[in-house]
Design goal:
The chain has 4 helices and 5 strands, in the order E-E-E-H-H-H-E-E-H. The protein is α+β, with helices and mostly antiparallel strands and 148 residues long. Helix 1 crosses helix 3.
Length: 148
């Protein structure tokens, strides 16, 4: 059974093209930890859209070509996911949802220790993220409605 973590804070939510040409999911990016030193990247469940392994999505982009590898530890994939979330926040495209204070829960699929700090993070939790507020969750799920 997956471990669940929870938090409250700024959450950036964006549509992510993960299977060419039209396979989208909804990605959420936030942080946790005493000093916000742990990145959290999750997919938001959307009715009618299959669950997504974000680590597999990252692996398909061959991130080890950019970040190198650390003996199969998912190091490069974790860095790619953090960069995707961070970039989505820093350069939001139309349709990005920025929630200033959202309570969330993540069913953790994997935790990766980065070995060195990236964008202020020392580790990544990745998995399935839900927003506690029903209206915020509905807004996040609706990001794909325009693509249907």
């Amino acid at each position: 059974m997956a471990r669940t973590i929870e938090g409250t804070g700024r959450v950036t939510v964006l549509p992510l093209l993960h299977l060419w040409p039209d396979g989208y999911c909804v990605l959420a990016y936030t942080a946790t930890g005493a000093l916000g030193d742990t990145a959290v990247v999750g997919y938001v469940p959307v009715p009618g859209i299959p669950d997504v392994s974000l680590m597999d999505v990252a692996a398909r982009h061959e991130p080890q070509r950019l970040y190198g590898s650390s003996n199969g530890s998912d190091f490069a994939e974790a860095r790619w996911l953090i960069c995707t979330g961070w970039s989505g926040r820093g350069m939001p495209k139309p349709g990005t949802l920025e929630l200033k204070a959202a309570a969330w829960q993540l069913d953790v699929d994997r935790t990766v220790e980065l070995g060195k700090t990236m964008y202020g993070y020392d580790r990544l939790h990745v998995g399935r993220l839900t927003l506690d507020d029903a209206e915020q969750l509905h807004q996040a799920q609706d990001l794909l409605a325009a693509r249907a």
